[in-house]
């Protein structure tokens, strides 16, 4: 019987089993699938680049340019030219130009001298308001998650403060915190809530907590509704108390939603502008970084761009710390919980 050369040498035939694709064909399909996915998301990427990417890059470029100034010879406005890192040192080191052409510490009362105080006020508002909103919002979410008559009406009523525009909220609390307003009349006090240093700060905190706590409660409530009731029933059968069920079941399982709520609210609080700007007007005790940026725009957009870039970096660092250090990554937290349950 005749035997072919390929069979005698032990070489394998260059064909695959019926119905199984060749490796080259599988790689081609994967490449085509990736290309199709990129084509589908390309319009969104272009839109994000135009709406978000260009303003960020433009602001960063402007931050290295001097603002327009008066030419001593002609008395007319001229382009400032390259500024190097001057706009950044103006804020970080609080250095202001002098008449002789040098730099010196910014005089008290100028915008440059208020940078670090504005950063402190912003961080103070963020820490206090977010902490209060988490505690109150968690309690509200637990109450709204229970089954009782009128629950739908309660949920709708709770969202009313969050639905009111911030400018309207600020004006509402401004009337209440007035010298002859509701707060002083009810408590029999004569506090200048919008003028004194610490009363003005507490007024902003109270108004912000009243407005944004429903947002926290809504996000936490969504996480509570994902917890199976069978877990609570099993804990009751095992004799766990209400506090033990809250500590060992509710908190660990609601952590993904809670961390996302903290992340979103923290980033929002770091950009706080309209509430203190309207409620306390030009009170330096409540001046946030965003208010400083708006005030600087009226004097020079390039220096304001540098301050905006610093604010962006500050918010990015805080968000990175929350995601990486505190574990505010909801997807990773849920994966860890599933692995632990196996």
TrEMBL record:
<keyword id="KW-0813">Transport</keyword>
<feature type="transmembrane region" description="Helical">
    <location>
        <begin position="37"/>
        <end position="57"/>
    </location>
</feature>
<dbReference type="InterPro" id="IPR000515">
    <property type="entry name" value="MetI-like"/>
</dbReference>
<dbReference type="Pfam" id="PF00528">
    <property type="entry name" value="BPD_transp_1"/>
</dbReference>
<feature type="transmembrane region" description="Helical">
    <location>
        <begin position="115"/>
        <end position="140"/>
    </location>
</feature>
<feature type="domain" description="ABC transmembrane type-1">
    <location>
        <begin position="119"/>
        <end position="322"/>
    </location>
</feature>
<dbReference type="GO" id="GO:0005886">
    <property type="term" value="C:plasma membrane"/>
</dbReference>
<feature type="transmembrane region" description="Helical">
    <location>
        <begin position="202"/>
        <end position="224"/>
    </location>
</feature>
<dbReference type="InterPro" id="IPR035906">
    <property type="entry name" value="MetI-like_sf"/>
</dbReference>
<feature type="transmembrane region" description="Helical">
    <location>
        <begin position="245"/>
        <end position="264"/>
    </location>
</feature>
<keyword id="KW-1003">Cell membrane</keyword>
<feature type="transmembrane region" description="Helical">
    <location>
        <begin position="152"/>
        <end position="173"/>
    </location>
</feature>
<protein>
    <submittedName>
        <fullName>Sugar ABC transporter permease</fullName>
    </submittedName>
</protein>
<keyword id="KW-0812">Transmembrane</keyword>
<keyword id="KW-1133">Transmembrane helix</keyword>
<comment type="similarity">
    <text>Belongs to the binding-protein-dependent transport system permease family.</text>
</comment>
<keyword id="KW-0472">Membrane</keyword>
<feature type="region of interest" description="Disordered">
    <location>
        <begin position="1"/>
        <end position="25"/>
    </location>
</feature>
<dbReference type="GO" id="GO:0055085">
    <property type="term" value="P:transmembrane transport"/>
</dbReference>
<feature type="transmembrane region" description="Helical">
    <location>
        <begin position="310"/>
        <end position="331"/>
    </location>
</feature>
